[in-house]
Amino acid sequence: MATKDFTTTFVVDQTPEQVFNAINNVRGWWSEEVEGSTDKLNAEFNYHYKDVHVSKMKITELIPGKKVAWLVLENYFDFTKDKNEWKDNKIIFDITQKGNQTQLQFTQVGLVPAYECYDICRDAWTNYINNSLRSLITTSKGQPNPKEGGFNEQLIQQHNKQ
Q1: Does 3 map to a domain?
Q2: Most buried residue, 24, 40, 116, 136, by most Cβ within 10 Å?
Q3: What pTM was computed for the model?
């Protein structure tokens, strides 16, 4: 049975270790508004985008060259009826060697079409994973949200116009 959890996958020429290291450099591809350690097992870090999206993640799996997993401990959206969508979701980065290439599969277990934030969250993750993280892996330069603004600003404005 096919899952409806959001997932996206890409393949790069870099090694599994390079992909693993880039994932753990969360400030380099997601947002510069991250506080706390993002590369230690059981560490917790906070992400926020203004007062629109605030979340707290716990690193639950950290297997070099193979897997990174986060548990969403707390989450707040100011644009959904259920302000806590994402709470208890698992965010998983599976890294697999494919010949001379490396595949990264990103899944947010719990981010399903029934979520009010699904469309905006799908668009955001697709950008951060397929564009910013991929760029960090392949060129050593991602496109994270700066301290304020960036891609999240565009998505929120689009959402508010609907």
Answers
A1: no
A2: 136
A3: 0.89
CA-CA distance, 63 to 52, in Å (whole number)? Answer: 32
Percent of the chain with pLDDT over 70: 89
pLDDT band at 124; cut points 50, 70, 90: very high
How far apart are the C-alpha atoms of 94 and 19, rounded to whole Å? 10
Of the candidates 66, 8, 74, the one whose C-alpha atom is nearest the C-alpha of residue 36 is 74
pLDDT (tens digit per residue) in 30-78: 999 899 999 999 999 999 888 888 999 999 999 999 999 999 999 999 9
Residues contacting residue 52 through CB under 8 Å, at least 6 positions apart:
77, 78, 79, 152, 156
Structural domains counted in the chain: 1
Q: Is the pLDDT of residue 1 over 50?
A: no
143: containing domain: 8-161
Supply the DSSP symbol for 83.
T
For residues 110-141, one letter each, b for 16 or more C-beta atoms within 10 angstroms of the residue's C-beta and e for the rest, the string is bbeeebebbebbbebbebbbeebbbbbbbeee
Which pLDDT does position 94 carry in this prediction? 98
Distance CA 119, CA 33 (A): 22
- Does a structural domain hold residue 36? yes
Q: How would you classify the pairing of strands 34-36 and 101-109? A: unpaired
Q: Is there a domain that residue 1 lies in?
A: no
